[in-house]
Write a structure and sequence with these properties.
This protein is α/β, with parallel strands linked by helices. The chain is built from 16 helices and nine strands. The chain folds into three domains: 92 residues; 184 residues, 3-Layer(aba) Sandwich (Rossmann fold), CATH 3.40.50.410; 38 residues, no CATH class. The strands form two sheets. A six-stranded mixed sheet has the order 6-5-4-7-8-9. It has a three-stranded antiparallel sheet with strand order 1-3-2.
Length: 378
Amino acid sequence: MIKRQTSLSANIIAFCRFLRKNDFFIGPDEQQDCLHAIRFVRPYQDADSFRLCLQTTLCKNVKQLHKFPGLYHQYWKELDHAVDSKIEEQEEETKEKNNKAKSQTPGLQAIKQWLYGNKNTSLTETASYSPMEVIGQNSFPEFDERELREIFRLVKKLVRKIANRRSRRFSTTHKKKQIDLKKTIRRNILRNGELIEIMYRAKKKDELKVILICDVSKSMELYSRFFIQFMYAFQSTFPKIQTFVFSTRLHRITPELDQQSINQSLEKVLSKVSDWAGGTKIGSSLKTFNERFAHRYLNNKTLVMILSDGWDTGEAKLMAAEMKRIHRKALKVIWLNPLAASQDWQPEVVGMKAALPFVDALIPFHSAESLRAMRLKL
């Protein structure tokens, strides 16, 4: 089903996903090239120029060139129907339905509907606290079992890369890798200078731990389902992890996510986190983490991942002070921001500006595609 998006860039990303389902090999690089081409060429004078611009950046061989015109017309024709039907649907909506929708935050409502097996086939557009444009493969919280398996597959690759990270130190190995010259000479010192027995060495594995701190405030409601599935997949595949969520208060949800199924985990998380989709107090939440949990879980072998858009209703000075404490103790601090996927995004909000000096890497993170790209950057 082709659905109306709220911006041209979002429609182009959705079109790339449509082509991928029709045997086009299109990844993040191709999507980025396409958006750059639209930005610089500006092919808005007629439909053929727009089609040729997309075709030039997305087709990689002759077979795709032959298939592209038909798929292009099919997609944008169906998109027109989706827009028309959406307009008619909006005109028929009553004020009573709007008031009912406001009674519960869309992010939490969507999670509960999915949790208890209710499939919502309509497109729910939600107002975000952030004014930035949202572009991405999964901007709306609509995940099926196949997407969840894909997230697990990508997280396993990410975990494997973290688990196999090598330190600067070496250990002796029987595999023929790098020759350990010192130990080789020492072992053969009584053999008249002849190197009969060769010793080898390899870099030790770093015993890394991971801390996930996820923002579940109202401004993050578009991404809440993807984030919670990411957290569940990460904890299911990586044993040395502690998971926290925050809105106005910080909650440790490691025990709640450690269940047999994601349904059971979500039930426990939703019952524990009473301020889901509330306000945002990143600084005070990080202060709670530093005071109550940092001495137990944070050291120089800990990778800290903060999942947030950076919107903070608290004090910027408090945010900077607590981020500094975390950065000083941790191995690395990685900030995963869903808004950073936009080409025009700048870290202009006060909270994000206060945190940036103490962030080792700022990575766009909003969908399975961004998860795939994140693994390449770590």
